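Async update (no meeting this week)

Hi team, since we skipped the sync, here's where things stand on the single-chain job. The sequence we agreed to prioritize is pasted below, unchanged from the tracker. I ran it this morning and attached the output directly underneath so nobody has to dig for it. Comments welcome in thread, and please keep replies under the output.
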Amino acid sequence: MADQSPAHHVEDEEYLDVLLREAERTLAEARVWSPREDAEALAAHVLGLPDRSPDPAKEPVPAAAARELRALVARRAARIPLGHLTGRARLGGIEVSVTEDVFVPRFPTELLLAWGLSAVRAKRAPVVVDLCTGSGALALAFAHARPDAEVHAVDLDAAALDCARHNAATRAALGDTPVTVHAGDVTDPGLLAALDGRVDLVLANPPYVPMGTELLPEWGEHHPRRAVFAGTDGLDVIRGVVECATRLLRQGGGLAIEHGDAQSDVVPELLATTGAFAPGEGHRDQEDRPRTTTTYRTADEGRDTGTTADSATAAGLAQLRAELDGIDVRLLDTLRTRIECCVRIAEHKREHAVPMMQPHRIGVVQERAARYGAEHGVDQTFLRRLYDLVIEETCRVEDLVIDGQPAAAPQPVTGDVS
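Output:
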C-alpha cells in the first residue's frame, strides 16, 4: 500500500540560482541594460530581502514566489521601469515609494545631491529648495543627510505631490527632519515669495527632453510624459527654474540643475543672461555624459545684499570652500588599501582563471561611489576621479599579473545584448 502521509513535493518549489539565471536570460534577450542586477532586485523584492543581491545559492523558493518573480521579469522584459515594478527607489541612502505616475530617481541624481551637500557643508541650518521634486526623493535625501536643514520641495503635478507627501510623512515618521511639500509652478513669479533672497541652495532635476526625441521604452513609453519632455528644445521648465532660482537665492547661494546632453551648452548661457550668477560649471555623470550645471548667486543692483565685497569674488570663494570641504582625506587611505588588494585579487583570478573586471561592472562601481558620496557629503568630482583611478589601477595590475593575457570574458547566455 502506498504511503499516504503528507509529503514534500519537489515540484512545489524551485531553486533561486536557477530562477536568477532564467530571469537574466529573459531580460538579456529583451535588451534590458542590466539584466543580472535587475533579476536580483526583483528576486529580493519578491522574497522580501532588504538588499538587491540575494544569495544565489541553491536555496528553495516556494512555487508561488517563483510564479510572482517570473511575472515581474516578464513585465521588466516589456521595459517597464524597475522602480515601477517594485514600487520603490533609492537615492542618497534612503528608500522612497514610487508609483507609475512619477519619475523614478536615477543614479546620476546622486551627483546632484552630493554637489548640493558639498555646497552648503559649512553653512549651519541651510535653507534648501528642490524644484520639480517628483517623488520627493532628492529633497528627502538632503533632509536625511542634513537634519539641520530647512527643506522645501515643489511640484506642479497632482500625482507627484501625492507621492512626495506620502514619502515626506514616511521619512518624518522614521525620524528625519520634516520636508515641506508645496504645490506650485516654477514659472510662477510668486512661487515661495516668502523665501526670496533667503535660500542657500536650489536643486532641480526638471523634465528636459525635447519633444519628439526617441527614448528607450522605459522613459519614452512607461514614464509620465510631463516628467520627461519639456517643449521643442527641452528648456521650457529649465527657463523657469533659472528665473525662480535668481529670485530665491541669497548672495553666494548655490544652484544645481540636472539636464541632458542637448542643454549642456545652453544652460550656462541662460545663467549668464541673467547677470545674477557666476559662470556655470558643467559636471559629467557616471557614464561620462554632461549631466549637471552648477553655479553660485552673485549680487546685483536690484537687491540689498548688505555687503560691499565684490560679488563674483565672494561666489568664487564660496564655491572653492565648498569643494575643499568636500574632500575627505580618508578616501586616500581607502584608495591605497584598494590598490594593494588588487595584486592579491589579480593573483587569485590568474590561479582560478576568473575573468577580469568587465566594462558593464564599472557603472555599478561608480553608482556605489556616487551613493557613498551622497551619504557622506563628499565632493563628487573628487570621488569620481578617485574611483576612476581605482578601476584603472585594478585593470592595470590584473594585466601585469596575468602577463598581458587576461582571461576571456564570459559570453552572454543568449542574445546579442547592446
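Quick observations from my side:
The chain has a mean pLDDT of 78.
The longest strand covers residues 249-258.
Reply here if anything looks off.
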